[in-house]
Write a structure and sequence with these properties.
Length: about 190
């Protein structure tokens, strides 16, 4: 299915209405055979047929924060993130994740953000993270050597596989200020 992105006004309304009609017909056919699909396949099909939030490209900014003791051992971690549509924040999160390394917190923030996108039928996302390590591991430029990180890396890719389109980029901390603030708020929760 091809959707022209640069359409406006009445043309956009007609295109969405036309897609809704086709999606309803496809859904009826799939309903007849849904017992032969796995639950993962069914949720993928639902996401593909959904016209809620998923047809627009969103931005996800995430960050992890970590506190250390005098010997530089992690004692507390927080995560935060914000999902935006056209520079307007529509969802955000901030929470404490306990004793984790900074890299673990970065991955956990990314996973939480991806989960929040999927729960809100967002299937097209540009991701911005200020951890160059995480970005390079997700893009396959760096290997993942630590077992705990490998588990988080695998879980992240499991979430990413459910998106219609995604990209991940490194941003400097000043371009990730909202997520940075939210992750630091998570330290005190």
């Amino acid at each position: 299915m091809i959707m022209v992105l640069e359409i406006t006004g009445l043309e956009h309304h007609l295109c969405i209405k036309n897609m809704d009609s086709k999606n309803k017909k496809i859904s009826k056919i799939l309903d007849k055979y849904k017992s032969s699909f796995s639950s993962d396949d069914l949720s993928s099909l639902d996401a593909l047929l959904s016209n809620d939030l998923g047809s627009e490209k969103y931005s996800l900014f995430t960050d992890g924060a970590c506190e250390f003791d005098n010997e530089y051992k992690p004692i507390n971690a927080g995560i935060g993130g914000v999902i935006k549509l056209k520079d307007q924040a529509i969802f955000s999160f901030s929470e404490n994740v306990g004793v984790k390394t900074n890299n673990e917190a970065e991955y956990l923030a990314l996973i939480k953000g991806l989960d929040l996108c999927l729960k809100n039928n967002i299937s097209l996302v540009s991701i911005f993270v200020d951890s160059e390590l995480v970005v390079k591991q997700i893009n396959g430029d760096y290997k993942v050597k630590n077992d705990r990180m490998a588990t988080l890396h695998k879980k992240t890719h499991e979430f990413l596989s459910k998106f219609n389109s995604w990209s991940i980029s490194h941003v400097y901390r000043d371009k990730n200020a909202e997520a940075d603030d939210l992750s630091k708020q998570g330290l005190s929760k």
